[in-house]
């Protein structure tokens, strides 16, 4: 199996953590990626530095104005400090402009050149700070997904993008939920230039709202998400079963909400339905947004999965027989990441034995 990661992705190290869950510990820490790299290396995976795809490649799924903001916000923020102001140690919003949350509706660009206004507009919540090393980490995280997608286009049956920061909550021009660039959407868009029908399956604990929104009116990309029911869980505003797509994309979005407390055995019918939908769609290639925050002891989980859940995911996808791009999303209990990834790879038959 080919895997992609750049050590630059360690540089995103938020200092103003959004502390969530019963353990009250910082969540998106660099140690997450280090643990996953160790698992890959012990399994003999080839971990390569991704190609530099540049900045414009991100415009495949994001607005140029939004990308320009992410690339320049921290330097502009520091300029405020140089001018004698005290903006804080990282870029964070203090405004919350109205956003309808309507699936498939893309917001216009921010009408104001003000950094404060743009920060409130483009950073959707307090879990998306921008620090000194954030932009390069964000950029290279997207490049890992692009390189994994290209590997599959070139003939690899399976490629893994160790994307950090994650991406599935990133909309066309809005960051949220630890996510800035939608790595899975970027991979899917690249695959769609090779194959006429592509599917994205998101099995993170949280609904992949950004991915859904980017493809909601598309008929060539099926988006399927199994996730904790969202009436009382992030992202709250989307992830409901009645959201099925719009226009040419009608019927090409499937949400399978799971009751809080759902176990692995209770998850399997939803997984089977997801795989059946992908097969009926006639997908020719697949992107898997994999999150290990469904694990029962994850600090922000409301689900009760054990590690067998990830093995089942891998087995079901192997049965589909499609080329697969794995894109890393959540999972915030560092100790659970290695056995989670190990189980997934065993299910996919990408490794032969447990470490």
UniProtKB/TrEMBL annotation:
InterPro entries: HDACs, His_deacetylse_dom, His_deacetylse_dom_sf, Ureohydrolase_dom_sf
Domain Histone deacetylase residues, every copy: 30-346
Pfam (any one): Hist_deacetyl
Keyword Metal-binding: yes
BP terms from Gene Ontology: epigenetic regulation of gene expression
Cofactor(s) named in the record: Zn(2+)
GO molecular function: histone deacetylase activity; hydrolase activity; metal ion binding
Record's keyword terms, sorted: Hydrolase, Metal-binding, Zinc
Domain of life: Bacteria
Family of this protein: Belongs to the histone deacetylase family.
Protein's UniProt name: Histone deacetylase family protein
Organism whose genome encodes this protein: Comamonas kerstersii
């Amino acid at each position: 199996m080919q895997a992609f990661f750049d050590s630059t992705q360690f540089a995103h190290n938020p200092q103003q953590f959004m502390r969530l869950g019963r353990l009250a510990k910082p969540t998106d820490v660099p140690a997450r990626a280090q643990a996953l790299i160790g698992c890959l290396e012990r399994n003999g995976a080839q971990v390569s530095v991704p190609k530099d795809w540049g900045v414009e490649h991100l415009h495949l799924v994001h607005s140029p104005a939004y990308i320009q903001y992410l690339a320049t916000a921290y330097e502009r923020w520091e300029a405020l400090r140089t001018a004698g102001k005290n903006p804080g140690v990282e870029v964070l919003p203090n405004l919350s402009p109205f956003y309808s949350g309507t699936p498939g509706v893309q917001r216009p660009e921010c009408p104001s050149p003000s950094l404060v206004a743009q920060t409130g507009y483009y950073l959707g919540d307090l879990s998306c700070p921008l620090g000194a090393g954030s932009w390069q980490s964000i950029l290279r995280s997207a490049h890992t997904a692009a390189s994994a997608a290209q590997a599959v286009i070139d003939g690899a049956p399976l490629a893994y993008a160790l994307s950090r920061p994650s991406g599935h909550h990133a909309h066309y021009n809005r960051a949220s939920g630890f996510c800035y660039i939608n790595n899975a959407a970027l991979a899917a868009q690249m695959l769609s230039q090779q194959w006429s029908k592509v599917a994205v399956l998101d099995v993170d604990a949280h609904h992949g709202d950004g991915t859904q929104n980017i493809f909601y009116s598309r008929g060539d990309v099926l988006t399927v998400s199994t996730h904790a029911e969202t009436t009382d869980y992030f992202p709250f505003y989307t992830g409901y079963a009645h959201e099925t797509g719009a226009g040419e994309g009608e019927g090409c979005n499937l949400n399978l909400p799971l009751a809080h407390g759902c176990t692995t055995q209770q998850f399997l019918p939803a997984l089977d339905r997801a795989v059946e939908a992908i097969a009926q769609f006639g997908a020719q290639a697949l992107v898997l947004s994999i999150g290990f925050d469904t694990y029962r002891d994850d600090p922000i989980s409301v689900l009760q999965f054990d590690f067998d859940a990830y093995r089942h995911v891998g087995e079901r996808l192997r049965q589909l027989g499609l080329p697969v791009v794995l894109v890393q999303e959540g999972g915030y209990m560092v100790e659970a990441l290695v056995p989670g990834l190990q189980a997934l790879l065993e299910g996919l038959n990408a490794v032969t034995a447990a470490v």
